[in-house]
Amino acid sequence: MPSATRRLKPGLRYSIAAFHRIAAGAVPRVMEDKWFIFYEEPCLHFHRSWTGDAIFAVRWKVTPKEAQVVEVLVNADPKQYRGRDDAADVALVKRILDSLAARSR
Q: Is residue 59 a contact partner of residue 94, using CB atoms and an 8 Å limit?
């Protein structure tokens, strides 16, 4: 992640079971897969699959009952990520997290 970042506080929460599916991440298998996603406590890292650029780092607080997104760091380097507005970035992160949470093991 570059030094230029934006911090978002989306207030997202997931069950522990969903968090484990999310933390399993995603490895791109075909050219159309846009994200390489991996978890290193306490952050889930989102990298663009083609460039390797770090775009999002999602920091978690995990308890026995739930997992909460504490903040999202967004790459603010315009050469690496064409900044969207905060609402669009939160919506994108939520869509990806929800997709990961919904998959079966």
A: no
**Distance, CA of 61 to CA of 84 (rounded, Å):** 25
User: Is-above-0.85 flag for pTM?
Assistant: yes
Give per-residue pLDDT as tens, 42-84: 999 999 999 999 999 999 999 999 999 999 999 999 999 987 7
Quote the tokens at residue 98: 């929800």
**Token couple for 88:** 């669009």
pLDDT band at 105 (very low <50, low <70, confident <90, very high): low
Phi, psi of 59, deg, nearest 5: -95, 135
DSSP track, 50-84: TT--EEEEEEEEE-SSEEEEEEEEEE--TTT----
CB neighbour burial string for 42-57, b if at least 16 within 10 angstroms, e if fewer = ebbbbbbbeeebbbbb
Unique residue bearing structure tokens 């690496």: 80
